[in-house]
Amino acid sequence: MSNSSTFSQQAWQQNLALFEATLALPFNQTLADGSLPRDVFQHYMIQDAHYLVAFGRALAVAAAKADDAPGVVQFAAAAQEAVVAERELHHSFMQAYAVSAEQFARTPLSPTCHHYCHFLQSVAWSRSYPVALAALLPCFWIYAEVGVHLQARSVAHNPYQGWIDTYGGDEFHAHVRAVRATVDAVAAQADARTLAEMHAAYTDAARLEWMFWDSAYRLQTWPC
After folding, report:
1. Is the pTM of this model over 0.70?
2. What is the Cα–Cα distance from 151 to 169, expressed in whole angstroms?
3. Which of 153, 183, 151 has the alpha carbon at shortest distance from 169?
4. Is 59 strand, coil or helix?
5. CA dist 40 → 43, 152, 215 (Å)
6. Active site residue 102
7. What is the CATH number of domain 36-213?
8. Pick the catalytic residue: 20, 81, 102, 209?
9. Which has the closest alpha carbon to 12: 223, 221, 176, 215?
10. Cβ atoms of residues 169 and 146 within 8 Å
11. 12-31: pLDDT as tens digits
């Protein structure tokens, strides 16, 4: 691997097998061919909506830790997007898939969603700004790349096409490129120990991305 490669390029290559395993998950395979069971997609939407609140909080903490004004603006705006705009998106899909407000309110976070939410918030609060950004990056980037893959494989008249297009579209990808650029700029100023911590945080979050889709497909709940 070239020493001139950026943090994000290195992280992607080091976790490529994990990304390929994510693409191969039954959830993503059946989302692409339109055969994903409706109740699985409902469960996924509920868990993802819960997750976005925690993701927004972690982004807000990262914004507060930013070492320059552009970083404050970028991640404060991303926090707002996660909590407001994407929750509105979820609301429209929940209406389309008949998930009532009561059903959402009474459905707790699954064990995996609970762990992922607490991981991001813990890292954001307790670790350095560079490490917090590295932990947040997989949610942006892996979603975008999964979206592209799903768009390429999606069947005609896929009932989930609207969802796929949201994350495979140009607007979301432009947002992801901006986040990657900031993470890479921060990493370029980091010492060796911080870079190692960034890579560990990225991998942990990428594993949790895999676990999130897997747990949604299995309709994961608490064992007792």
Report:
1. yes
2. 9
3. 151
4. helix
5. 5, 22, 10
6. no
7. 1.20.910.10
8. 209
9. 176
10. no
11. 999 999 999 999 999 999 99
